[in-house]
Design brief:
Blueprint lengths: L1 E7 L5 E4 L1 H11 L4 E7 L4 E7 L3 H14 L13 H10 L2 E7 L2 E2 L5 E7 L5 E8 L1
The structure holds zinc ion.
Length: about 130
């Protein structure tokens, strides 16, 4: 079953917790057990799983990605957003999730995040449940 989420980001760089929207999609799908692929079809955004309990964790991740990959450097890409492409490559564009008894089988502190690195934009997240 193919589904899609639209996520409007509000800053150049941010993490958006998309766990609630994905839980809603999963509930509508009525899938009970199986697998789910989450795929973001962009080159300057990513998806990742990390802690959704303490928001400082995602703030720290964003801050340290900025230190690792600065906005300005000796990049060749003329569009001026090479840092965003590199950060997206580091985190990746897809996730594979386990569905058990109608819920994502995540760890207690895990949440699913869209990572925006060149916003604000409207991003598409493709979801395949089987
Ligand atoms: Zn670019």
């Amino acid at each position: 079953m193919h589904l899609e989420l639209e996520v409007k980001t509000t800053a150049r760089e941010q993490f958006v917790n998309i766990t609630p929207q994905l839980n809603e999609l999963l509930a509508k799908s009525e899938a009970k057990d199986g697998c789910c692929t989450v795929f973001v079809s962009h080159t300057t955004a990513a998806v990742t799983i990390n802690e959704d309990n303490d928001p400082d964790v995602m703030e720290d991740l964003l801050r340290h990605l900025k230190i690792l990959v600065p906005l300005k450097n000796d990049y060749r890409h003329r569009e001026g957003n090479s840092d965003a492409h590199i950060k997206a490559a580091l985190l990746g564009c897809s996730l594979h999730l386990i569905i058990r008894s109608g819920s994502f089988d995540l760890g207690t502190w895990q949440g699913i995040f869209l990572a925006e690195f060149d916003g604000p934009r409207t991003r598409k997240v493709k979801v395949w449940i089987d």
